[in-house]
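Work Package 3 (structural annotation) set out to generate three-dimensional models for the target panel prioritized at the project kickoff. During this period the team completed the workflow that converts sequence records into discrete structure tokens, so that structures can be stored uniformly alongside our sequence database. As a representative example, we reproduce one entry of 356 residues exactly as it appears in the project archive.
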Amino acid sequence: MAGNSFGTLFKLSTFGESHGVAIGGVLDGCPSGIEVDFDAIQNELNRRKPGQSAIVTQRKEPDTVEFYSGIFEGKTTGTPIGFAIHNTNQKSHDYTHIKDSYRPSHADYVYDQKYGFRDYRGGGRSSARETASRVVAGALAKQFLSGMKINAYVSQVGNMKMETPYQDLDFSQIEANPVRCPDPKMAAEMEAYIKEIRKEGDTVGGVISCVIQNVPIGLGEPAFDKLHAELGKAMLSINAVKGFEYGSGFDGVAMKGSEHNDQFNQDGTTKTNNSGGIQGGISNGMDIYFNVAFKPVATIIQPYQTIDREGNFVQTKGKGRHDPCVVPRAVPIVEAMAALVMADFTLLNRTIKANS
């Protein structure tokens, strides 16, 4: 299986399966001398871990990270940072009913077709549990990028969409509710709706918005390594993500060029920011903002028809502990992947300047 690494200089490789002994990773390229805030890393994991509220999966995992290399006396050494998170609350028997059949809209069928074999327990490598390793690496990236501020939040659940511009939001309210929506009234409505969906044994999708502030000018390359292209790749690599848009996004198609163009101020900033902080694939110093669309979780606790390995139709039903809506727990994952991209481009920019 290829494709287990992300990044060029600030590079993360992950390992492990949902119901294996542990998941973890190796972060290579992290500069030396960064003072590590272990509590901040654990806090990021706590934001992602299961069982944290009534609207997420009730799998109980402490998600405690253990570091094995690359950190000495509380600082990074510049060598590879190895870490692991042990799995402690697997219930593999919840998945025996799908050993020989395929869940619709999951990776089960394509895994069997591609590899001829699959770990059916919780989806194995295709499980979103793998993203815990990304959160650890992203938390380290955030500490490297101490000047930048990365804030993600839930802006939509199903048809319930928050219309408030991010400039008018209080990001300190994101963690004030289990939905991670900074609008208290909308958050309460979203929470009630997710609970209703859960009672039905069904699931619902949503949108996470992300804002990156204090970005220097010059990150990104103008051809294939555009900054927004790498952000898009990062977000689309997250389980259940179906769409990515930055800046004006799809709404921009309804505007005229005279409306969409970001006119300059004398200091190089722009009066508007339809570009989303990126022009020609390169950051322009304005805020970067984007939306990430998540599909409804594929596992529904309802009877459904599917096929087995022989192509026969079979009736089955979802079992186990699953999220009725993935977006509340995906907020720290979006932030982590954004941080990995920004850290990688920061190092690439340093290399270019050093060689010029």
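The chain has a mean pLDDT of 92.
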